Amino acid sequence: MKTKPLFIVMSAPSGCGKSTLIDMLLQEYHDIVYSISCTTREPRGEEEDGIDYHFKTKERFEELIAEDAFIEYAKVHDNYYGTLKAPIEEVLAEGNSMILDIDVQGAAKVRERVRSLPDGDLLKAGYVDIFVMPPSMEELRRRLEGRGTDSRESIERRLANAEGEIAHADEYMFKVVNDELSVAYKRLCDLVDALSGRM
Ligand code: 5GP
After folding, report:
1. Is the CB of 13 under 6 A from ligand 1?
2. 25 in Cβ contact with 99 (< 8 Å)
3. What is the position in ligand 1's atom list of the atom closest to the CA of 102?
4. Ligand 1 centroid distance, CA of 35 (Å)
5. Whole-prediction pTM value?
6. Which residues of the chain are under the pLDDT cut of 50?
7. CATH number of 7-35+94-196: 3.20.20.450, 2.60.40.1730, 3.40.50.300, 3.40.50.970?
8. 82 lines ligand 1 (CB under 6 A)
C-alpha cells in the first residue's frame, strides 16, 4: 500500500514510555526509520557508531554546521548533538517515514526550521510532532519511583524537568497520553495510520 511519508518528531518527559512506544512502532511499521543523531561525545560501553549515534570529531561536526547539514543541533555539556537533514530527506524521498526522538528544545528548533522550508518540501509536507504525556504528575512520580533505578534527588530533578517540558505540550500538533501502554500504542498507531493514509 502506498502511504504518505511522515517526518515524525516525538518528545516526552522521562518515564513516560516514549522509547518503548517508539520501539513498538519500529517493530510493527517497517517503513518507519529511526533517526540516529550525531554527537561529538565518546561512545559509552557497548555503543556502536551508526547504531546508537554517528560519532564525529568536533572538527567534522563544526564543518557540518558550517555546511548547514543539520536540521537542528545543540551543545550539551561541551559536546555537540545534532540531526542531519540529508538522511531524513533520503528516507522520505524513498516513500518511507522517519521518526525523531528529541527533547522539547530540539523539537522547537526542528519545528522552526521545518516552518521555514518551502511549501511542497517533503519534510514540511510530512511533518508531524507528537508529545507523549503522563496521565498525571502523581502517576509519573509513581512510575519513576517504581523503576527503582533513580535516587530521590534524581527523581525530583526528573519531575521538575517533566513539569517544564509538559508546559510546552501545547506546541505539539498531537498529544498521546500514556496511561496504559497498549492503549497509548493503539492511539499512536491510529494517528500514524490516519496521517499516512494507511486507513
Ligand atoms: P547522551 O549523551 O546521554 O546520549 O545524551 C545527552 C543528551 O543529548 C540527551 O538529553 C539527548 O536527548 C540529547 N540528544 C541526543 N541526540 C540529540 C540530537 O540529535 N539533538 C539534540 N538537540 N539533542 C540530542
Report:
1. no
2. yes
3. 12
4. 12
5. 0.95
6. none
7. 3.40.50.300
8. yes
158 CB within 6 A, ligand 1 = no
Residue 78, phi-psi category: left (phi > 0), alpha (psi -120 to 50), beta (remainder): left
CB-ligand 1 contact for 80 (6 Å cutoff): no
What is the distance between the alpha carbons of residues 31 and 120, in angstroms, rounded to a whole number? 21
C-alpha cell at 93: 524521498
164: three-class secondary structure by DSSP = helix
Per-residue confidence (pLDDT) for residue 141, from 0 to 100: 95
Give the tens place of pLDDT for each residue, 38-75.
Answer: 999 999 999 999 999 999 999 999 999 999 999 999 99
- Model pLDDT, residue 147: 86
Four-CA torsion 134, 136, 140, 146, nearest 10 degrees: -120
| Pocket flag, ligand 1, residue 76 (CB < 6 Å) | yes
**Closest residue CA from atom 9 of ligand 1:** 103
Cα-based distances in Å from 126 to 59, 86, 116, 135, 190: 32, 15, 14, 28, 16
Q: Using a 6 Å cutoff on CB, does residue 83 contact ligand 1? A: yes
* CB atoms near residue 74 (< 10 Å): 15
**Predicted pLDDT at 1:** 72
Q: Where are the domains of the chain?
A: 7-35+94-196
